Amino acid sequence: MGLVVLDLELGRDRTGALLDGVALVPPLRDSGWQVLALTEHTPPERIGATLAAGAHYTVSVATVRTQIRGILTELEVHSQLEAVALYTRHHRPEP
Fold first, then answer.
1. Residue 11: left (phi > 0), alpha (psi -120 to 50), or beta?
2. What is the dihedral of CA 64, 69, 3, 22, to 10 degrees?
3. Which has the closest alpha carbon to 75: 86, 62, 61, 64?
4. Listed residue (56, 80, 63) closest to 6, CA to CA
5. DSSP secondary structure, 20-81, as one string
6. Is domain 3-90 annotated with CATH 3.40.50.2300?
7. What does the buried/exposed string (b/e) look like for 55-86 if buried means 16 or more CB atoms within 10 Å of the residue's CB?
């Protein structure tokens, strides 16, 4: 199918119980999705459980931020909005 970027820290439900992104990995994989798990303050054992559940990769929020900063630097822009504007200027369909 495609790729799902899944945040493991989904917050809390209405009762205050933690929502666990790890539990979503097997049904997503069973439906044919590849899973990239996004983590921030996730203990190593939960990352291991995520991979054991079938996620292809885990990546930290800090890594994502670093990569985005690198892309913006290469594009010589200062924000994601500027990057979108740059793309739009250079990829307008012909009238």
1. left
2. 10
3. 86
4. 56
5. EGGGGHHHHHHTT-EEEEEESS--HHHHHHHHHTT-SEEEEHHHHHHHHHHHHHHHT-SSHH
6. yes
7. beebeeeeeeeeeeeeeeeeeebeeeeebeee
**pLDDT tens digit sequence for 33-57:** 999 998 887 788 988 999 999 998 8
Reference 21, options 33, 43, 37; nearest CA is 37
Does the pTM surpass 0.70? The reply is no
* Of the candidates 40, 60, 44, 41, the residue with the CA atom closest to the CA atom of residue 52: 44
Of 73, 14, 9, the residue nearest 38 (C-alpha): 9
pLDDT in tens, 55-82: 988 888 888 889 899 999 999 999 999 9
20 vs 86: CA distance, rounded Å = 38
